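JOB MANIFEST
job_type = single_chain_structure
chain_count = 1
residues = 246
[input]
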Amino acid sequence: MNIAIVDDLHSDADQLRTILMSYAYENSLDLSIEVFSGGEDFLSEYKKYNYTLIFMDIYMNGISGIETAQKIRETDTDTAIIFLTSSNEFMPEAFSIHAYDYISKPAEIGRLYKVMDDFLKKKTMAEDVPYLFFTYEKDKVSVPYSDIALIRSIGHYNEIVLKNQRTYKVRMTFSRISDILTEDIRFLPVMRGILVNMDYITSLKNGSCFIAGDMQTPITLRKEKQLEQIWKNYIFNKIRNESEVI
């Protein structure tokens, strides 16, 4: 895991690095840590997704940690940023740019260990969530399977429709998307060129599949009863499995 420390006080940066290396040793964690002496220094070397975690001092000579983080967020909304400061004055600004956490300086071992424990736990959980990766308007996009309501083939394109009805029109073969998603039990082919996430189906009737959010799509009429039974079995098993966990 790659970590950056951005702090113009070398003694504070060294102390933080020492604590992180101790944490890594005690938890058999492979860490690579780079230290930067300020916001300008960091931004001159920064590339999107270079780091999993950035520890950022707020009060620095030159541009502040808040300004540096704002620059990062212009292109990178995913990398976790933890602010380091001796004052709570900038806490609202820190969380407005979706900081992961806010640590008072000097960093205490117990506090830092807890933050790392929580971060790694959430990171592990996030990695267990499957994502669909595709290119949209020259940008790389990743969408959790759980956010996808349906996918439909339209000509040479496919529409990936999310649960909030945001739609991505992508040039990717439907067979390729289908091969990926149908490995997940929740996706049901309701007719040629249409996949629906069964978590969002509200009913199947009269030749249509009704989807949460006032969406609907046609289905193969002669398979309506069969599709409805597959959906009901899926929901039944899902509820049963969830109740067993509880």
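[summary]
The CA atoms of residues 43 and 72 lie 8 Å apart.
The two ends are 33 Å apart (CA to CA).
exit_status = 0
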